[in-house]
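Quick review question:
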């Protein structure tokens, strides 16, 4: 089964009254439990496609053609055309961060500098799975341990600036996976990391994929990363 199927997708931007397509006729599919790499040079539209899937296109951008079909394994036989959903409607908000997780390109700019790692993961969890805070903390500390934090209880109270680049990326991974998504979008997940930490993060993503059975859309310009995955 395909978790994600994109057909003839077109995305346009309107700037200073001028409209132009930035993505023209893209088609791809991501099967359940598999990894698909979307490879291209900087400025080719890779991240714009991920923004369209997550319903996070800037105000100047819009899907002008095609479809983005998401099939949730928890709801067999049904599919949702994300391209046709209202930008800030209830349906896309339920998918974003819940059934579709995302690791952003630069964790330092994606994480809030004034909230602890634990608070930020907790917000994502309680938004999609309301539960008592004590139970939520237990789940979060378990996830922090699974992504490689040696002392999850201490990590819960740390701020992003107290973490290395590799640990910030692991915190982003924990936030993306806390709700056990069917699809994980990883947008240049190792760009700011050195080679050794890159390998560790990619190994971790592979292990968690095997454990959780999720599909991964890997966005990168680095064929070395593709070969590793």
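Suggested answer, residue by residue:
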């Amino acid at each position: 089964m395909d978790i994600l199927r994109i057909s003839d997708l077109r995305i346009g931007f309107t700037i200073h009254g001028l409209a132009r397509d930035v993505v023209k006729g893209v088609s791809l599919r991501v099967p359940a439990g598999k990894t698909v790499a979307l490879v291209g040079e900087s400025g080719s539209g890779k991240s714009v496609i991920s923004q369209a899937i997550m319903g996070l296109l800037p105000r100047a951008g819009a899907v002008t053609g095609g479809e983005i079909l998401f099939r949730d394994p928890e709801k067999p036989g049904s599919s949702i055309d994300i391209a046709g959903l209202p930008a800030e409607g209830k349906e896309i908000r339920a998918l974003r961060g819940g059934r579709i997780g995302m690791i952003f390109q630069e964790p330092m700019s994606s994480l809030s500098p004034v909230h602890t790692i634990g608070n930020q993961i907790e917000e994502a969890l309680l938004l999609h799975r309301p539960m008592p805070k004590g139970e939520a903390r237990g789940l979060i500390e378990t996830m922090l341990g699974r992504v490689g934090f040696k002392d999850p209880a201490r990590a819960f109270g740390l701020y992003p600036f107290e973490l290395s680049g590799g640990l910030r990326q692991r915190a982003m991974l924990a936030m993306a996976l806390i709700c056990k998504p069917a699809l994980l979008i990883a947008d240049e997940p190792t760009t700011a990391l050195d080679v050794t930490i890159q390998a560790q993060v990619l190994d971790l993503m592979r292990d968690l994929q095997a454990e959780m059975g999720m599909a991964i859309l890997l966005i990168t310009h680095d064929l070395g990363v593709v070969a590793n995955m």
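Why it works: The chain has a mean pLDDT of 90. The first strand starts at residue 2 and ends at 15.
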